[in-house]
Amino acid sequence: MSPMLKKWTTFSPKAMVIGGAISLPVVLLILFLPLKPVSKEQLKLMECWTKLQNNTLSAIAKNSPIIEDSQKPDIAKGNAAKKNVIKRKRKIPLVPISMSPFMCCQGKSACQDGQLWGEYGVPGDKQALLNSISQSLKYLQSEAAVNAYKDYRVQSINRDRVIRSLLRFRQLVMAAKNPRELQQAVEKEFQFYQSVGSDRLGGVLYTAYYEPMYEASKVATPEFRYPIYRRPPDLDSWPRPHPTRTELEGVDGLQADKGKLKGLEFFWFRQRLEPFMIQIQGSARLKLTDGTETTVGYAGNTRQDYVSIGKALADDGKFPLDGLRMPDIIKYFENHPEELNTYIPRDPSFVFFKENFGAPAMGSISVPVTADRSIATDKSVMPPGALAMIHSTMPLAKQDGSLHYPIITRFVLDQDTGGAIRGAGRVDYFAGTGKIAGDRAGMTASNGKLFYLLLKDRK
Protein backbone atom coordinates (compact mmCIF):
# COMPACT_ATOMS: atom_id res chain seq x y z
CA MET A 1 0.00 0.00 0.00
CA SER A 2 2.32 3.10 -1.09
CA PRO A 3 4.92 0.88 -1.38
CA MET A 4 2.38 -0.86 0.81
CA LEU A 5 -0.90 -0.28 -0.99
CA LYS A 6 -0.51 3.34 -1.89
CA LYS A 7 -1.92 2.58 -5.28
CA TRP A 8 -5.63 2.62 -5.73
CA THR A 9 -5.73 -0.78 -7.43
CA THR A 10 -3.77 -2.74 -4.82
CA PHE A 11 -5.64 -4.85 -2.34
CA SER A 12 -4.95 -6.86 0.77
CA PRO A 13 -5.36 -10.64 0.66
CA LYS A 14 -8.79 -10.35 2.16
CA ALA A 15 -9.95 -8.02 -0.54
CA MET A 16 -8.57 -10.53 -3.01
CA VAL A 17 -10.53 -13.30 -1.32
CA ILE A 18 -13.82 -11.57 -0.69
CA GLY A 19 -13.83 -9.16 -3.58
CA GLY A 20 -13.45 -5.44 -4.10
CA ALA A 21 -16.79 -4.48 -2.57
CA ILE A 22 -16.97 -6.23 0.78
CA SER A 23 -20.36 -6.06 2.43
CA LEU A 24 -20.67 -8.06 5.62
CA PRO A 25 -23.50 -7.56 8.12
CA VAL A 26 -22.26 -5.38 10.92
CA VAL A 27 -23.68 -7.25 13.86
CA LEU A 28 -21.98 -7.09 17.23
CA LEU A 29 -21.85 -10.86 17.42
CA ILE A 30 -19.57 -10.88 14.38
CA LEU A 31 -17.04 -8.99 16.46
CA PHE A 32 -16.23 -12.27 18.13
CA LEU A 33 -15.17 -14.32 15.11
CA PRO A 34 -14.58 -17.19 14.65
CA LEU A 35 -18.06 -18.29 15.69
CA LYS A 36 -17.90 -20.09 19.02
CA PRO A 37 -20.20 -20.37 22.05
CA VAL A 38 -20.49 -16.93 23.65
CA SER A 39 -19.36 -16.73 27.29
CA LYS A 40 -21.06 -14.65 29.99
CA GLU A 41 -18.11 -12.25 29.91
CA GLN A 42 -18.51 -11.78 26.15
CA LEU A 43 -22.27 -11.22 26.56
CA LYS A 44 -21.59 -8.45 29.09
CA LEU A 45 -19.02 -6.95 26.76
CA MET A 46 -21.48 -7.00 23.87
CA GLU A 47 -24.15 -5.32 25.99
CA CYS A 48 -21.69 -2.56 26.83
CA TRP A 49 -20.72 -2.20 23.16
CA THR A 50 -24.42 -1.81 22.34
CA LYS A 51 -24.54 1.14 24.74
CA LEU A 52 -21.41 2.56 23.14
CA GLN A 53 -22.98 2.12 19.72
CA ASN A 54 -26.02 4.10 20.87
CA ASN A 55 -23.63 6.72 22.17
CA THR A 56 -21.99 6.85 18.75
CA LEU A 57 -25.38 7.35 17.10
CA SER A 58 -26.09 10.26 19.43
CA ALA A 59 -22.69 11.74 18.64
CA ILE A 60 -23.33 11.41 14.90
CA ALA A 61 -26.66 13.22 15.22
CA LYS A 62 -25.17 15.92 17.44
CA ASN A 63 -22.19 16.58 15.19
CA SER A 64 -24.08 16.78 11.89
CA PRO A 65 -22.76 13.73 10.02
CA ILE A 66 -23.02 15.38 6.61
CA ILE A 67 -21.45 18.68 5.64
CA GLU A 68 -21.78 20.46 2.34
CA ASP A 69 -19.07 22.35 0.53
CA SER A 70 -18.69 23.82 -2.93
CA GLN A 71 -16.06 23.69 -5.58
CA LYS A 72 -14.85 27.27 -6.10
CA PRO A 73 -15.57 28.73 -9.54
CA ASP A 74 -12.76 29.83 -11.82
CA ILE A 75 -12.79 33.61 -11.39
CA ALA A 76 -10.94 34.06 -14.66
CA LYS A 77 -13.92 32.61 -16.50
CA GLY A 78 -16.33 35.20 -15.12
CA ASN A 79 -20.03 34.80 -14.34
CA ALA A 80 -20.42 31.76 -16.57
CA ALA A 81 -18.30 29.74 -14.18
CA LYS A 82 -20.46 30.70 -11.20
CA LYS A 83 -23.42 28.94 -12.78
CA ASN A 84 -21.42 25.71 -12.77
CA VAL A 85 -20.45 25.65 -9.10
CA ILE A 86 -20.56 22.02 -7.96
CA LYS A 87 -21.94 21.28 -4.53
CA ARG A 88 -21.05 18.01 -2.86
CA LYS A 89 -21.94 16.39 0.42
CA ARG A 90 -19.23 14.91 2.62
CA LYS A 91 -19.89 12.60 5.53
CA ILE A 92 -17.97 13.15 8.75
CA PRO A 93 -15.90 9.98 9.39
CA LEU A 94 -15.15 10.49 13.11
CA VAL A 95 -17.24 11.72 16.02
CA PRO A 96 -16.17 12.52 19.59
CA ILE A 97 -17.80 10.20 22.10
CA SER A 98 -18.41 10.93 25.77
CA MET A 99 -18.30 7.29 26.90
CA SER A 100 -14.83 5.79 27.08
CA PRO A 101 -14.57 2.47 25.23
CA PHE A 102 -12.54 1.18 28.19
CA MET A 103 -15.74 1.26 30.24
CA CYS A 104 -16.87 -1.85 28.41
CA CYS A 105 -14.27 -4.08 30.02
CA GLN A 106 -12.58 -2.36 32.92
CA GLY A 107 -9.84 -4.61 34.23
CA LYS A 108 -10.23 -7.07 31.37
CA SER A 109 -7.30 -7.90 29.10
CA ALA A 110 -9.46 -7.48 25.97
CA CYS A 111 -9.39 -3.70 26.50
CA GLN A 112 -5.70 -3.45 27.39
CA ASP A 113 -2.71 -3.45 25.06
CA GLY A 114 -0.87 -6.30 26.74
CA GLN A 115 1.33 -6.83 23.72
CA LEU A 116 3.44 -3.83 24.80
CA TRP A 117 4.68 -5.84 27.79
CA GLY A 118 4.41 -9.26 26.16
CA GLU A 119 1.56 -11.75 26.11
CA TYR A 120 0.77 -15.29 24.93
CA GLY A 121 4.45 -16.18 25.28
CA VAL A 122 5.52 -13.48 22.79
CA PRO A 123 7.95 -10.72 23.92
CA GLY A 124 6.67 -7.17 24.27
CA ASP A 125 6.99 -4.64 21.45
CA LYS A 126 7.02 -1.32 23.32
CA GLN A 127 10.10 -0.14 21.42
CA ALA A 128 8.41 -0.94 18.11
CA LEU A 129 5.46 1.26 19.08
CA LEU A 130 7.78 4.07 20.16
CA ASN A 131 9.63 3.83 16.85
CA SER A 132 6.34 3.95 14.95
CA ILE A 133 5.32 7.07 16.88
CA SER A 134 8.61 8.69 15.88
CA GLN A 135 7.92 7.89 12.23
CA SER A 136 4.50 9.57 12.42
CA LEU A 137 6.04 12.62 14.07
CA LYS A 138 8.59 12.79 11.27
CA TYR A 139 5.79 12.76 8.71
CA LEU A 140 3.79 15.39 10.57
CA GLN A 141 6.66 17.87 10.19
CA SER A 142 6.54 17.52 6.40
CA GLU A 143 4.91 19.78 3.84
CA ALA A 144 2.75 16.82 2.81
CA ALA A 145 1.25 16.70 6.30
CA VAL A 146 0.64 20.45 6.33
CA ASN A 147 -1.33 20.11 3.10
CA ALA A 148 -3.18 16.98 4.26
CA TYR A 149 -4.55 18.72 7.36
CA LYS A 150 -5.41 22.04 5.72
CA ASP A 151 -8.99 21.08 5.00
CA TYR A 152 -9.55 18.05 7.23
CA ARG A 153 -13.28 17.60 7.55
CA VAL A 154 -13.39 17.16 11.35
CA GLN A 155 -12.70 20.71 12.54
CA SER A 156 -11.46 19.75 16.01
CA ILE A 157 -8.75 17.52 14.54
CA ASN A 158 -5.73 19.38 13.23
CA ARG A 159 -2.03 18.73 12.71
CA ASP A 160 -0.92 20.57 15.84
CA ARG A 161 -3.30 18.58 18.04
CA VAL A 162 -2.21 15.30 16.45
CA ILE A 163 1.45 16.17 17.12
CA ARG A 164 0.78 17.13 20.75
CA SER A 165 -1.20 13.92 21.22
CA LEU A 166 1.63 11.75 19.93
CA LEU A 167 4.24 13.50 22.07
CA ARG A 168 2.15 13.05 25.23
CA PHE A 169 1.18 9.48 24.41
CA ARG A 170 4.87 8.62 23.93
CA GLN A 171 5.59 9.95 27.41
CA LEU A 172 2.76 7.86 28.86
CA VAL A 173 3.98 4.68 27.15
CA MET A 174 7.51 5.17 28.49
CA ALA A 175 6.27 5.90 32.02
CA ALA A 176 3.60 3.18 32.34
CA LYS A 177 4.58 0.03 34.22
CA ASN A 178 1.76 -2.19 32.90
CA PRO A 179 -1.20 -2.20 30.49
CA ARG A 180 -3.71 -1.17 33.16
CA GLU A 181 -1.67 1.90 34.13
CA LEU A 182 -1.40 3.01 30.50
CA GLN A 183 -5.12 2.46 29.97
CA GLN A 184 -6.01 4.65 32.95
CA ALA A 185 -3.66 7.44 31.87
CA VAL A 186 -5.05 7.45 28.32
CA GLU A 187 -8.62 7.48 29.57
CA LYS A 188 -7.85 10.47 31.81
CA GLU A 189 -6.03 12.63 29.24
CA PHE A 190 -7.42 11.72 25.83
CA GLN A 191 -10.66 12.31 23.95
CA PHE A 192 -11.86 9.33 21.92
CA TYR A 193 -13.12 9.90 18.38
CA GLN A 194 -14.94 6.86 17.04
CA SER A 195 -15.11 5.94 13.38
CA VAL A 196 -18.72 6.00 12.24
CA GLY A 197 -17.94 2.85 10.25
CA SER A 198 -19.44 1.75 6.98
CA ASP A 199 -22.91 1.55 8.54
CA ARG A 200 -22.82 4.87 10.48
CA LEU A 201 -23.11 2.67 13.59
CA GLY A 202 -19.39 2.26 14.24
CA GLY A 203 -18.91 -1.08 12.48
CA VAL A 204 -15.44 -1.50 10.93
CA LEU A 205 -14.22 -4.43 8.83
CA TYR A 206 -10.62 -5.44 9.58
CA THR A 207 -8.32 -7.21 7.16
CA ALA A 208 -4.52 -7.46 7.17
CA TYR A 209 -1.57 -7.32 4.81
CA TYR A 210 2.08 -8.33 5.04
CA GLU A 211 5.48 -8.25 3.35
CA PRO A 212 6.09 -11.62 1.63
CA MET A 213 9.56 -13.16 1.40
CA TYR A 214 10.54 -15.07 -1.74
CA GLU A 215 13.58 -16.47 -3.48
CA ALA A 216 14.43 -14.61 -6.69
CA SER A 217 17.08 -14.29 -9.37
CA LYS A 218 18.64 -11.18 -10.92
CA VAL A 219 18.60 -12.91 -14.29
CA ALA A 220 16.08 -15.08 -16.09
CA THR A 221 16.86 -18.81 -15.99
CA PRO A 222 14.90 -21.97 -16.88
CA GLU A 223 14.04 -22.21 -13.16
CA PHE A 224 13.32 -18.51 -12.51
CA ARG A 225 11.04 -17.39 -15.35
CA TYR A 226 8.39 -15.03 -13.98
CA PRO A 227 9.46 -11.39 -13.59
CA ILE A 228 8.36 -8.26 -11.82
CA TYR A 229 8.79 -4.94 -13.65
CA ARG A 230 10.10 -1.44 -13.11
CA ARG A 231 7.77 1.48 -13.72
CA PRO A 232 7.68 2.40 -17.42
CA PRO A 233 9.30 5.86 -17.78
CA ASP A 234 6.43 6.98 -20.03
CA LEU A 235 3.62 5.54 -17.89
CA ASP A 236 2.04 8.95 -17.28
CA SER A 237 1.64 9.48 -21.02
CA TRP A 238 0.07 6.09 -21.76
CA PRO A 239 -3.35 6.58 -23.39
CA ARG A 240 -6.41 5.53 -21.44
CA PRO A 241 -7.67 2.98 -20.91
CA HIS A 242 -4.34 1.46 -19.97
CA PRO A 243 -3.47 -2.01 -21.32
CA THR A 244 -4.79 -4.96 -19.35
CA ARG A 245 -2.59 -7.47 -17.58
CA THR A 246 -2.98 -9.91 -20.46
CA GLU A 247 -2.03 -7.25 -22.99
CA LEU A 248 1.09 -6.43 -20.98
CA GLU A 249 2.42 -9.88 -20.09
CA GLY A 250 0.31 -12.43 -21.97
CA VAL A 251 -2.00 -15.12 -20.68
CA ASP A 252 0.96 -17.15 -19.38
CA GLY A 253 2.82 -14.18 -17.89
CA LEU A 254 5.84 -14.74 -20.16
CA GLN A 255 5.15 -12.49 -23.15
CA ALA A 256 6.12 -9.06 -21.80
CA ASP A 257 9.28 -8.88 -23.91
CA LYS A 258 7.01 -8.47 -26.93
CA GLY A 259 5.33 -5.28 -25.78
CA LYS A 260 5.47 -2.19 -23.58
CA LEU A 261 7.33 -3.92 -20.72
CA LYS A 262 10.29 -5.14 -22.72
CA GLY A 263 13.54 -4.44 -20.86
CA LEU A 264 11.80 -3.46 -17.62
CA GLU A 265 12.14 -6.89 -15.98
CA PHE A 266 14.47 -6.83 -12.97
CA PHE A 267 13.82 -9.86 -10.73
CA TRP A 268 12.57 -13.32 -11.69
CA PHE A 269 10.66 -15.93 -9.65
CA ARG A 270 10.01 -19.68 -9.79
CA GLN A 271 6.23 -19.59 -9.53
CA ARG A 272 3.83 -17.28 -11.32
CA LEU A 273 1.80 -16.78 -8.16
CA GLU A 274 4.78 -15.15 -6.38
CA PRO A 275 5.08 -11.94 -8.47
CA PHE A 276 1.29 -11.70 -8.47
CA MET A 277 1.26 -11.87 -4.66
CA ILE A 278 3.88 -9.13 -4.53
CA GLN A 279 1.54 -6.99 -6.61
CA ILE A 280 -1.26 -7.72 -4.14
CA GLN A 281 0.85 -6.81 -1.09
CA GLY A 282 2.77 -3.93 -2.65
CA SER A 283 6.25 -4.93 -1.46
CA ALA A 284 8.47 -7.93 -0.77
CA ARG A 285 11.76 -9.03 0.76
CA LEU A 286 13.84 -11.13 -1.63
CA LYS A 287 16.48 -13.79 -0.99
CA LEU A 288 18.59 -13.77 -4.16
CA THR A 289 20.33 -16.74 -5.69
CA ASP A 290 23.72 -15.07 -5.22
CA GLY A 291 23.25 -15.19 -1.44
CA THR A 292 22.30 -11.52 -0.96
CA GLU A 293 18.99 -10.01 0.14
CA THR A 294 17.09 -6.97 -1.05
CA THR A 295 13.63 -5.44 -0.94
CA VAL A 296 11.26 -4.12 -3.56
CA GLY A 297 8.41 -1.65 -3.16
CA TYR A 298 5.56 -0.07 -5.03
CA ALA A 299 6.45 2.31 -7.88
CA GLY A 300 3.20 2.71 -9.82
CA ASN A 301 0.24 0.94 -11.35
CA THR A 302 -1.96 0.86 -14.39
CA ARG A 303 -5.38 2.49 -14.23
CA GLN A 304 -7.39 -0.68 -14.37
CA ASP A 305 -9.85 -1.88 -11.74
CA TYR A 306 -8.70 -4.77 -9.60
CA VAL A 307 -10.61 -8.05 -9.97
CA SER A 308 -10.48 -10.59 -7.15
CA ILE A 309 -9.26 -14.01 -8.23
CA GLY A 310 -10.62 -15.40 -4.96
CA LYS A 311 -14.09 -14.27 -5.92
CA ALA A 312 -13.52 -15.63 -9.43
CA LEU A 313 -12.72 -19.05 -7.94
CA ALA A 314 -15.90 -18.87 -5.87
CA ASP A 315 -17.96 -17.78 -8.89
CA ASP A 316 -16.70 -20.86 -10.74
CA GLY A 317 -17.75 -23.13 -7.89
CA LYS A 318 -14.23 -24.01 -6.75
CA PHE A 319 -14.95 -22.76 -3.21
CA PRO A 320 -17.86 -21.32 -1.28
CA LEU A 321 -17.22 -17.59 -0.97
CA ASP A 322 -18.21 -17.57 2.68
CA GLY A 323 -15.15 -18.30 4.78
CA LEU A 324 -12.69 -18.37 1.86
CA ARG A 325 -9.20 -17.29 2.98
CA MET A 326 -5.84 -16.72 1.33
CA PRO A 327 -4.30 -20.03 2.55
CA ASP A 328 -7.13 -21.85 0.73
CA ILE A 329 -6.33 -20.01 -2.51
CA ILE A 330 -2.59 -20.62 -2.26
CA LYS A 331 -3.11 -24.33 -1.56
CA TYR A 332 -5.52 -24.60 -4.49
CA PHE A 333 -2.99 -23.17 -6.93
CA GLU A 334 -0.21 -25.34 -5.49
CA ASN A 335 -2.36 -28.34 -6.41
CA HIS A 336 -3.56 -26.84 -9.73
CA PRO A 337 -0.69 -24.65 -11.03
CA GLU A 338 -2.01 -24.88 -14.58
CA GLU A 339 -5.06 -22.83 -13.53
CA LEU A 340 -2.93 -19.78 -12.68
CA ASN A 341 -3.05 -18.93 -16.39
CA THR A 342 -6.84 -18.98 -16.18
CA TYR A 343 -7.38 -16.88 -13.08
CA ILE A 344 -4.51 -14.38 -12.87
CA PRO A 345 -5.41 -12.88 -16.30
CA ARG A 346 -8.90 -12.15 -14.96
CA ASP A 347 -7.38 -9.31 -12.95
CA PRO A 348 -6.63 -6.59 -15.51
CA SER A 349 -4.72 -4.34 -13.08
CA PHE A 350 -0.92 -4.33 -12.99
CA VAL A 351 1.65 -2.99 -10.49
CA PHE A 352 5.25 -1.82 -11.01
CA PHE A 353 8.14 -1.85 -8.53
CA LYS A 354 11.47 -0.34 -7.60
CA GLU A 355 14.37 -1.85 -5.69
CA ASN A 356 14.65 -0.51 -2.14
CA PHE A 357 17.97 -2.24 -1.32
CA GLY A 358 16.91 -3.67 2.03
CA ALA A 359 14.86 -0.68 3.22
CA PRO A 360 11.71 -1.64 5.16
CA ALA A 361 8.25 -1.59 3.66
CA MET A 362 6.94 1.96 3.41
CA GLY A 363 3.48 3.35 4.05
CA SER A 364 1.61 5.86 1.95
CA ILE A 365 2.81 8.74 4.17
CA SER A 366 6.40 7.83 3.18
CA VAL A 367 7.54 6.34 6.49
CA PRO A 368 8.25 2.67 7.29
CA VAL A 369 5.31 0.61 8.50
CA THR A 370 5.71 -1.37 11.72
CA ALA A 371 4.42 -4.89 12.31
CA ASP A 372 1.31 -4.86 14.53
CA ARG A 373 1.59 -1.09 14.99
CA SER A 374 0.69 0.36 11.57
CA ILE A 375 -2.70 0.41 9.90
CA ALA A 376 -3.95 1.43 6.48
CA THR A 377 -7.12 3.49 6.11
CA ASP A 378 -8.76 5.68 3.51
CA LYS A 379 -6.65 8.83 3.70
CA SER A 380 -9.39 10.88 2.07
CA VAL A 381 -11.37 10.53 5.32
CA MET A 382 -8.97 9.50 8.11
CA PRO A 383 -6.21 11.64 9.73
CA PRO A 384 -2.78 10.56 8.39
CA GLY A 385 -0.10 9.72 10.93
CA ALA A 386 -2.53 9.94 13.85
CA LEU A 387 -2.73 7.73 16.93
CA ALA A 388 -5.54 5.20 16.82
CA MET A 389 -6.84 2.28 18.86
CA ILE A 390 -8.26 -0.85 17.27
CA HIS A 391 -10.55 -3.37 18.95
CA SER A 392 -11.41 -6.61 17.18
CA THR A 393 -10.78 -10.32 16.96
CA MET A 394 -7.34 -10.83 15.43
CA PRO A 395 -5.25 -13.93 14.63
CA LEU A 396 -2.06 -13.90 16.69
CA ALA A 397 0.88 -16.31 16.60
CA LYS A 398 2.03 -18.20 19.66
CA GLN A 399 5.68 -19.10 20.24
CA ASP A 400 5.26 -22.32 18.23
CA GLY A 401 3.79 -20.41 15.27
CA SER A 402 0.23 -21.69 15.74
CA LEU A 403 -2.58 -19.16 15.51
CA HIS A 404 -5.21 -18.25 18.06
CA TYR A 405 -7.98 -15.66 17.82
CA PRO A 406 -8.35 -13.46 20.91
CA ILE A 407 -10.26 -10.20 21.14
CA ILE A 408 -7.54 -7.55 21.27
CA THR A 409 -7.01 -3.85 21.79
CA ARG A 410 -3.95 -2.28 20.15
CA PHE A 411 -2.57 1.22 19.96
CA VAL A 412 -1.56 1.84 16.34
CA LEU A 413 -0.45 4.59 13.98
CA ASP A 414 -2.39 5.41 10.82
CA GLN A 415 0.42 5.31 8.25
CA ASP A 416 -0.83 3.65 5.09
CA THR A 417 -3.70 3.36 2.64
CA GLY A 418 -4.94 1.02 -0.08
CA GLY A 419 -7.24 0.55 -3.02
CA ALA A 420 -9.66 -1.73 -1.17
CA ILE A 421 -9.52 0.45 1.92
CA ARG A 422 -12.28 2.93 1.23
CA GLY A 423 -14.52 4.84 3.58
CA ALA A 424 -14.70 4.97 7.36
CA GLY A 425 -15.52 1.28 7.73
CA ARG A 426 -12.31 -0.36 6.47
CA VAL A 427 -8.94 -0.94 8.13
CA ASP A 428 -5.98 -2.99 6.90
CA TYR A 429 -3.58 -4.09 9.64
CA PHE A 430 0.13 -4.63 8.87
CA ALA A 431 1.05 -8.09 10.17
CA GLY A 432 4.79 -7.96 9.39
CA THR A 433 7.18 -9.90 7.17
CA GLY A 434 7.43 -13.57 6.21
CA LYS A 435 5.36 -16.74 6.38
CA ILE A 436 3.79 -16.39 9.83
CA ALA A 437 2.80 -12.82 9.03
CA GLY A 438 1.31 -14.10 5.78
CA ASP A 439 -0.62 -16.80 7.63
CA ARG A 440 -2.02 -14.20 9.99
CA ALA A 441 -2.87 -11.77 7.20
CA GLY A 442 -4.59 -14.49 5.20
CA MET A 443 -6.83 -15.38 8.14
CA THR A 444 -7.81 -11.84 9.14
CA ALA A 445 -11.37 -10.81 8.38
CA SER A 446 -13.41 -9.62 11.33
CA ASN A 447 -15.58 -6.75 12.46
CA GLY A 448 -14.66 -4.42 15.28
CA LYS A 449 -14.33 -0.82 16.38
CA LEU A 450 -11.85 1.95 15.53
CA PHE A 451 -11.01 4.98 17.67
CA TYR A 452 -8.63 7.91 17.26
CA LEU A 453 -7.05 9.41 20.37
CA LEU A 454 -6.57 13.17 20.69
CA LEU A 455 -5.51 15.07 23.79
CA LYS A 456 -8.47 16.68 25.51
CA ASP A 457 -8.94 20.36 24.76
CA ARG A 458 -6.99 22.69 26.96
CA LYS A 459 -9.17 24.49 29.52
What features would you describe in this structure?
This protein is α+β, with helices and mostly antiparallel strands. It folds into two domains: 226 residues, Barwin-like endoglucanases (Beta Barrel), CATH 2.40.40.10; 145 residues, Beta Barrel (Ribosomal Protein L25, Chain P), CATH 2.40.240. Helix 4 packs antiparallel against helix 6. The N terminus is likely disordered. The strands form five sheets. The chain has a six-stranded mixed barrel. It has a four-stranded mixed sheet with strand order 6-9-10-11, with helices on one face. The chain has 13 helices and 18 strands.
Quick overview:
The protein has 459 residues and is of the alpha+beta class. It has 13 helices and 18 strands.
Layout of helices and strands:
Elements: H1 13-18, H2 40-62, E1 66-70, H3 79-82, E2 87-91, E3 94-97, H4 126-140, H5 143-148, H6 159-175, H7 179-189, E4 190-195, E5 204-211, E6 213-216, E7 226-229, H8 245-249, E8 265-269, H9 273-281, E9 283-288, E10 293-301, H10 309-315, H11 326-335, H12 340-343, E11 351-355, E12 374-376, E13 387-393, E14 396-397, E15 403-404, E16 407-416, E17 426-433, H13 435-442, E18 446-455
Parallel strand pairs: 5-17, 6-9, 12-16
Antiparallel strand pairs: 1-2, 3-4, 4-18, 5-18, 7-8, 9-10, 10-11, 12-17, 13-16, 13-18, 14-15
Task: Look at the structure and name the CATH superfamily of the largest domain.
Answer: RlpA-like domain
Number of domains: 2
Could you tell me how far the N terminus lies from the C terminus, measured between alpha carbons in angstroms?
Answer: 39 Å
Largest sheet: 6 strands, mixed, barrel
